[in-house]
């Protein structure tokens, strides 16, 4: 009899341990599945411990995503840009995450065009501390924006007052003229409609080099006085910086002889909703769709 009781106790203990083990395995499997969840609505702030750097395009970057972002990164994608701050005026820390699939950057894969659009995620923190995917857009970044080099860069900055964010595109010319252009899109969060509204577009351009200003002064004056010979020469041969060559053209005696400013020059045009209409982030289809703006 005692032997039967002893065997029963052993069997019960084995079943209990096996049950606990299966629960632990199921629990770990569930957490692992979150790692590459494409569009989770909400996730806890504490997920399984993983290495955030493996999800960064630049694994040596000083800025690294937090663990709570990992569940929102689709399989095969990396983070090439992210910012955090209050996006909707509730004093909670939210995120904007821009992603890229590294295979798009392989120059040998010709099927991936430079026009490939990249996803940007807007994650809002809820009162319970969880993050929620509020919006996803493919209209902000393309492959040309990924390297953030001297010649071309793009970034998103969140307003310090928690009211919105700005997307900036900056292009710098290769030549000594230092020609540059900069476009900025500013979105403000509307609590009434629960979406961000495009309220300002700023378009700027200019040059950092005195030589460029000098060059432009000759070209503008040639157009003004009708020196077509000079304009044709510039079109076919480039600007003639040699003084002896310049002497051949009428425009030479018409240009102001003073030295151009060494600070460079630039100008900005600001457009508002009265120019391009009422556009929310959820309806935004890219800058090419904006009317009434002189790009």
Keywords summarizing the entry:
disordered N terminus, alpha+beta, 295 residues
How are the secondary structure elements laid out?
Blueprint: H1 2-34, E1 42-43, E2 78-85, E3 94-100, E4 117-125, E5 131-142, E6 152-158, E7 164-172, E8 179-190, E9 195-207, H2 210-225, H3 228-237, H4 243-246, E10 265-272, H5 273-276, E11 279-280
Antiparallel strand pairs: 1-5, 2-3, 3-4, 4-5, 6-7, 7-8, 8-9, 9-10, 9-11
Gist of the model:
The protein is of the alpha+beta class.
How would you characterize the overall build of this protein?
The chain is elongated. The longest helix is centred in the first third of the chain and has 33 residues, at 2-34. The strands form two sheets. Strands 6, 7, 8, 9, 10 and 11 form a six-stranded antiparallel sheet that branches. It has a five-stranded antiparallel sheet with strand order 1-5-4-3-2, with no helix packed on it. The protein is 23% helix and 30% strand. 18% of the residues are buried. Strand 6 and strand 7 (164-172) form a beta hairpin. The protein is an alpha+beta fold and 295 residues long. The protein has helices at 2-34, 210-225, 228-237, 243-246, 273-276; strands spanning 42-43, 78-85, 94-100, 117-125, 131-142, 152-158, 164-172, 179-190, 195-207, 265-272, 279-280. It folds into two domains: 42-208 and 264-289, no CATH class; 210-253, no CATH class. It has five helices and eleven strands; from the N terminus they run αβββββββββαααβαβ.
């Amino acid at each position: 009899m005692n032997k039967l009781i002893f065997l029963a106790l052993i069997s019960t203990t084995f079943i209990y341990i096996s049950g606990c083990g299966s629960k632990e395995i199921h629990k770990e499997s569930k957490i692992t599945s979150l790692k590459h969840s494409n569009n989770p609505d909400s996730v806890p702030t504490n997920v399984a411990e993983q290495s955030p750097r493996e999800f960064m395009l630049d694994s040596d970057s000083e800025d690294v995503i937090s663990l709570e972002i990992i569940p929102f990164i689709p399989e095969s994608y990396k983070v090439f840009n992210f910012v955090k701050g209050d996006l909707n005026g509730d004093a909670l820390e939210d995120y904007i995450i821009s992603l890229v699939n590294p295979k798009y950057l392989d120059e040998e894969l010709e099927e991936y065009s430079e026009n490939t659009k990249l996803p940007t995620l807007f994650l809002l923190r809820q009162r319970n501390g969880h993050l929620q995917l509020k919006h996803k857009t493919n209209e902000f970044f393309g492959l040309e924006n990924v390297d953030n080099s001297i010649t071309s860069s793009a970034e998103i900055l969140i307003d310090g007052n928690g009211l919105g964010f700005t997307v900036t595109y900056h292009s710098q010319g290769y030549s000594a003229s230092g020609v540059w252009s900069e476009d900025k899109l500013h979105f403000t969060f509307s609590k009434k409609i629960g979406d961000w509204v495009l309220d300002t577009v700023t378009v700027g351009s200019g040059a950092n080099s005195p030589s460029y200003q000098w060059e432009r002064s000759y070209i503008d004056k040639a157009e003004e006085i009708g020196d077509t010979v000079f304009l044709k020469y510039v079109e076919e041969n480039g600007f003639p910086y040699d003084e002896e060559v310049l002497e051949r053209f009428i425009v030479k005696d018409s240009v102001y002889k003073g030295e151009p400013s060494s600070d460079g020059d630039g100008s900005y045009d600001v457009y508002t909703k009265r120019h391009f209409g009422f556009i929310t982030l959820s309806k935004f289809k890219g800058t090419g769709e904006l009317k009434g703006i002189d790009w």
